[in-house]
Amino acid sequence: MTDKHSEESEGGAISRRQLVRYAGIGATLVAASPLATTGTAAADDDAARGHDRPATPNGRIWRAGDHHIHSEYSGEFDTSVSPPRFRKGADAVYPIVTNAIMAKHFGLTWAMCTDHGGPTHSKVNLEQAYPDLLRSRILVPEVLQFWGMEFDAPAQDHHTLMIPHHRDEAQQLFELEQRFAKHDAFPADPGRDTEAKMIEFLKAAKGMPHKPLVIAHHASRSATGLGVYGQDTPREFRNGNDVAPDVYVGFEGAPGHQAAPLLGGARGGYGNHPTYGGFDQMTARVGGLWDALLGEGRRWWITATSDSHVHWTRGGADFWPGEYSKTYVHARQDYADIMDGLRAGRIWVTTGDLITSLDLTARGQGREAAMGETITLSRRNRGDVEIEIRFRPPQGVNGNGDRPEVRRVDLIVGQITGPATDRDSDTNPTTRVEARFGPRDWRRQGQEYVIRHTLRDVQTDLYARVRGTSTDEAEPLADGKESPWDDLWFYSNPVFVQFR
C-alpha cells in the first residue's frame, strides 16, 4: 500500500489548484489519444489488466507495467557554474503525473519514473522530482508508481535502478546515486566509470535491508554487429549477476523508442545494428546470449519498456507507457509483490497488445512449475515433461486501432549445462525451437487458447520458454523502416526443469 505518512510529510500538502492543473494536463492528452474517440480503451481497461480472470488463491493476476519512463526531470545541467544548474525538460518533456495518467489510460497498473542522471542529479532527484512523484501517487492511485532512476552504470550503459517502496525510499536512491552513478560527481571523477565500481555498487545494493532491482537498458544499442557488443558485454552481465543474483536480474528484451520508424528512424534507436522484431539481439537470437545465460542456470529475465521521452506525434521516437510495449508481472496490486514478481521472473512481455494473458507450465511426476519457477524431478524416474501454453487474444483494439492476431507460437527449449568456461560466450548450442504451433494446433477454452506438448524422455536439466508473433517470419528478421504495428511479438520468461 502507499505510505500515506511518507507522502504527506515528505511531499507536502497538495492544493486544489495543483490537483486541477495536473489533472487537466492528463485529460487533454487522453482526449488527444488515438483511442479516445473509439471508446475502446475505457471499455477494455479491466481486460487489459487481467481483471476479467479469476485471481489465484494468493490474489495474483497478470498486471501490466513499464519500468523505463522519462519525465521532465530528464533535463540538462549548466556546468559553467558551481554547483551545476539544472533545467527541466531538455530531453524528456512530460510531468511525472502526465506519464502516470497515460499509463493508466493504456492499461498499466504499475509504472516507474527513470530519469537520466548527471552532475549532482542525486540532489535534483531528492529535492525536486521526488515531491512530484508523491503528488502523482495521490492523483493517480490506480497506478503503483515506483521510485528510481535510469542509473548511469559504471563502465556500462544505462540500467533501471528500482527502489522498493518504503518510508526512506528517497534517501536510499539519493545514497546510491550519489555514491555510485558515474556522472553524479562534480567535477567529473573518471574513477567512477570502472567495472570495479559497478561491482562495488551491486555489493552495496545487495547488502541493503530494502534490496533494489537492477535491469539493463537497451543492452545492444551500442553493438556494431551481431555478437559484436558495445558498452554492455556478456562478461559484465555474468560478473554482476554472480555478485548480486537477487538484485541484478535481467535486461530489456524489447527496448523502448519503438515508434522511431514512424518518423523514419531506427527502431529502438539502434542505429549501429538493428533490433529483430523489435527485440534486442541478445534476446531475439535463438541460442544467443539470453539462452547462454539461462543455460548456466541463471535466473535472468527479460522485460519490455517504452523508454518514453517525447511522443512520436510530437516529434519524438516514443509511444506512451503501455501504448505499445507491456511487461506483465504475476502479482497482487501491491508494491512489494510486483517487485517480488520482477525479481522472481513471473514475467512475460508483448508488443502491440498481441495478447493480454500468457501462462507457461511444466508438469511431471505429479509436480508443476510456472514461469520463473523450477520443477524438480526424481533422477531415478526420468521421463516425459508436459508443457502447457495458454494465451488470451485482446478483446478490443490496440493502441493503433488494430485487432492483431497470433499467427504462430514457438516453444523453445535449451539444456542447462552449468557455468560457462568462457565468460565472453554468447551462445548456447543446445537451444532449439522444439515445436511451432499455428491456429490449427491450439484449441479454445473459454477466452483462452491452449497448446499442449510433451517433451519425451527428458534426460537432462533444461528450461523452456515461449514466443509468438503476428508475422509469418520463422525467425524475427532484422528491422528496417516497417511500421512497428505490423511486426508484433510476445515472449515468456522460462520455466526450469531439474533432476535430483
UniProtKB/TrEMBL annotation:
Ranges for region Disordered = 41-62
Q: Which SUPFAM superfamilies match?
A: PHP domain-like
Name assigned to this protein? Phosphoesterase
Protein source organism = Herbidospora galbida
